[in-house]
Amino acid sequence: MFRHIVLFRVHDDVSHDRVEEAIERLRSLASLPGVVDWRVELSLDARKGRVIVEDATFVDQGGFERFRLDPRHVHAAEAMSHIADWWNGDYAA
């Protein structure tokens, strides 16, 4: 198994509707090959701003690498780059 966790810090000027659209776009990636478990939520802790949490498990690192190259993921990452900065953590589970 391979874990991939991303924290998207949404820019302050982004509307609530755009945040909701981003969450739905990210959630739609759950159907991509290699995904074992996929969860995307808006953090309940907003002290440092709005943060979208992506918590994913893949079959293995190869599955994750194929996921990253999928055009749907590339499109989602491009869209997120306009509304957020992010930090990710990846590790073998």
TrEMBL record:
SMART domains: Dabb
Gene3D superfamilies in the record: 3.30.70.100
Species classification: Bacteria, Bacillati, Actinomycetota, Actinomycetes, Micrococcales
SUPFAM superfamilies: Dimeric alpha+beta barrel (SSF54909)
Stretches assigned to the Stress-response A/B barrel domain: 2-93
Annotated Pfam families: Dabb
InterPro entries: Dabb, Dimeric_a/b-barrel
PROSITE patterns in UniProt: S_R_A_B_BARREL (PS51502)
Organism: Microbacterium laevaniformans
The organism's place on the tree of life at top rank: Bacteria
Protein name per its UniProtKB record: Stress responsive A/B Barrel Domain protein
